[in-house]
Amino acid sequence: MSTSELPAKHAEPPASHADLMDGVYRWQRHFYDLTRKYYLLGRDRLISGLDVPPGGTVLELGCGTGRNIVLAARRYPAARFYGLDISAEMLETASAAMTREGLSGRVALARGDATDFDAKTLFGLATFDRIFVSYSLSMIPGWEKTVSAALAALSPDGSLHVVDFGQQEALPHWFRTLLRGWLAKFHVEPREALRDVLESESARVGASLRFRTLYRGYTWLAVIKIAI
Fold first, then answer.
1. What sequence ranges are listed for the domain Methyltransferase (predicted)?
2. Any domain includes 54
């Protein structure tokens, strides 16, 4: 079995949210990457900032179609990659992408809940050198738990990288209103408390936080670095 195939054993995510995401992406997954590249800004900057060590391990929570993993795997050819998503529909597309890109031997995918996952059971690894979450916290109920779960799965000297919608604080009010209305159609809600939660969680585990506001507040980009 190639590593991009879904593991036989995996934690079943909560049915309600899993079913919702499968419903949202059953058809969208076929053109998701073509449309999202125009407004999911900052993803490539996150990938370039991962700075994965040779032979390192990288986990994406909410990996979706696998677009980010493919790009990261090209940039860091000596690393191994793992992707977790709650949607079986998205994972089907991601698995096909790994096969198409010749990455099956370096990437493992699994279905699970990003707020409560057992990495050892899913992937055979308890910790990872890098974990990243790209435009997923704004879609996850109880997203704060995802931050805690990610930090718990970091290796010593590891780092958590997050990119997501900001509060558009320096953009016109009309733009913010239109964007929020559009995102709501896809069950997306920019997290106003994101910075506060990242600061609190960083302090809890004794880590450092670097937080950046991009594109006049359209995008928030953060890195939590574990102190050793």
1. 58-158
2. yes
Residue with tokens 């079995």: 1
Count of domains observed in the chain: 1
Q: What range defines the domain where residue 218 resides?
A: 15-225
Tokens 């004794």 found at = 206
Alpha-carbon distance of 37 to 207, in angstroms, equals 31
Q: Residue 102: what are its φ and ψ, rounded to 5°? A: 70, 30
Per residue in 80-122, pLDDT (tens digit) is: 999 999 998 889 999 999 999 999 999 999 999 999 999 999 9
Q: Do residues 121 and 17 touch, judged by C-beta distance below 8 A?
A: no
Residue 66: inside a domain: yes
Of the candidates 151, 173, 171, the residue with the CA atom closest to the CA atom of residue 162: 151
Task: Yes or no: say if 112 and 13 are a contact pair by the CB < 8 Å rule.
Answer: yes
Any residues with CB less than 8 A from the CB of 170 and at least 6 apart, and which? Answer: 216, 217
Please give the sequence-ordered ranges of beta strands (E in DSSP) within 86-176, or none if there are none: 107-111, 128-134, 154-165
In angstroms, the Cα distances linking 58 to 158, 200, 226 are 10, 24, 15
Q: Are 76 and 52 in contact (CB under 8 A)?
A: yes
CA dist., res. 206 & res. 228, Å (int): 9
Query: pTM of the entire structure?
Result: 0.84
For residue 126, give the CATH number of its domain: 3.40.50.150
